[in-house]
Each structure stands twice: as C-alpha cells, then as structure tokens.
Amino acid sequence: MKVRLPLLFCALASGGVLGGVGLSVLHAQTKPPAFYVADFELMDPEGIKPHREEFLSTLEPFGGRFIVRGGTVAKLEGDAPKGRFIVIAFDNVDKAMAWYNSAAYSALRSYRQKSGRTDAFVIEGTANQ
C-alpha cells in the first residue's frame, strides 16, 4: 500500500500535466473565425431569384451562418453601404473560401453578379480568448 500511493499520485500528476499540454496544443491549433462581408446593390429583382432561392443551401455544408442580412445601417463615417449589407460567419477562412469556391455557390454566383453590384471580402476574425 505504501508503494502504490506514491505511484498513484505520480500517475495523477503526470496525467494532469499531459492533459494540460494537450489542451494547449489543441487551443493553439484552433483557427480564428472568418466573415464573408458584402455590400450588394440590387439592380435586377427578377434576375436574382434563382440565387435567393438556393443560397442558404450552399452555406449549410460549410457551417456558414448569417450575422447581418440587410437591416438598418447607421452611417458614422465615410460612405454608407449602397445596397444590402451582409455578414456571414464561418468557423475559419478555409471554410469560407471552400464555400465561396464550391460548385454549389459557383453555380449561383453569376445570378448575383448579373443582377447587381457587389463589393465582397472574406475577413479573418480574432480567435476566442
């Protein structure tokens, strides 16, 4: 019993240290979130319909979720968006770019491009602390 107790404490301490190191490594490997940000000015309401009908289904496989979808803009400085302002969150830049370049979204993109003017970006956010 005397020999087993120190071994037990040693094993528990080692497990705690290894677990802490493992969590630190996993945390360091976590990529920061990314945001697709767009200012879309609609010119052709009929032409955008195919894009509007299928758009959400293109986001789901990549975990994309709306943060801002239109809404009121309060201008503070510079030029306010000319159209509808959109922000879509993704887990990381890789997923955002995979969505944007996916076959499903690529098939819809031309409807948006023909139906209006877009300024769009993917922006890397900050990792959760």
Question: What labels describe this entry?
Answer:
alpha+beta, Alpha-Beta Plaits, 4-stranded antiparallel β-sheet
Detailed description of the structure:
The protein is of the alpha+beta class and 129 residues long. It has two domains: 1-30; 34-124, Alpha-Beta Plaits (2-Layer Sandwich). It has helices at residues 4-29, 49-59, 93-100, 103-115; strands spanning 34-42, 65-69, 84-90, 116-124. The radius of gyration is 23 Å and the shape is globular. The two termini are 44 Å apart. The mean pLDDT is 84.
Write the SSE topology.
Layout: H1 4-29, E1 34-42, H2 49-59, E2 65-69, E3 84-90, H3 93-100, H4 103-115, E4 116-124
Antiparallel strand pairs: 1-3, 1-4, 2-3
SSE topology string: HEHEEHHE
Class by SSE composition: alpha+beta
CATH second-level architecture of the largest domain = 2-Layer Sandwich
Considering DSSP H and I runs of 4 or more, what fraction of the residues is helical? 40-55%
Strand order of the largest sheet: 2-3-1-4
- Helix count equals 4
